[in-house]
Amino acid sequence: MNGKLLDTNAVAALFNQDLALKSQLGDIRLLVSSIVVGELYFGAYKSGRVQHNITQLERFLDRNEVLVCDAETGKYYGQVKQQLKAKGRPIPENDIWIAAVALQHDLALVTRDAHFNVIDNLVIESW
To answer: What is the pLDDT of residues 34-69, one digit of tens each?
Structure first.
């Protein structure tokens, strides 16, 4: 699969008109995991502009593909979580799922979270 998997902070940067990120992504196919969708909805519901943020999110989702977690994702999740445990380097649970989706679909993960760097074989792009 080609394209880039966006982490929550990358989508938020797009929503905030981050020109550096927008220029790097250009016409690349953008994908998000269902985990990121949940995090974005949570952010919208806890914000001071709930309806505006939900509308912005839903427009984004209409234009981009959402990858859902399935049994195969669970396999990758288990591998990543064990790697992290063996290294003594835990990261947030949602981020393990996001990494699992990226690995499952052989996608680079666009993120600004440095803790993803401890995951073996995960391609990280940070702009």
So the answer is: 999 999 999 999 999 999 999 999 999 999 999 999
At a CB cut-off of 8 Å and minimum separation 6, what does 126 contact? 110, 111, 112, 114
Q: Contact at 8 Å (CB) between 28 and 4?
A: yes
Q: Are 95 and 116 in contact (CB under 8 A)?
A: yes
Report pLDDT for 1: 65
Beta strand extents in the chain (DSSP E only): 4-6, 30-33, 65-67, 108-110, 124-125
Distance CA(102)–CA(33), nearest Å, equals 8
For the whole model, what pTM was predicted? Answer: 0.92
Closest to 67 measured CA to CA, from 10, 107, 121, 122: 107
88 Ramachandran zone, left/alpha/beta (phi>0; psi -120 to 50): left
Q: Which domains does the chain have, with CATH numbers?
A: 4-113 (3.40.50.1010)
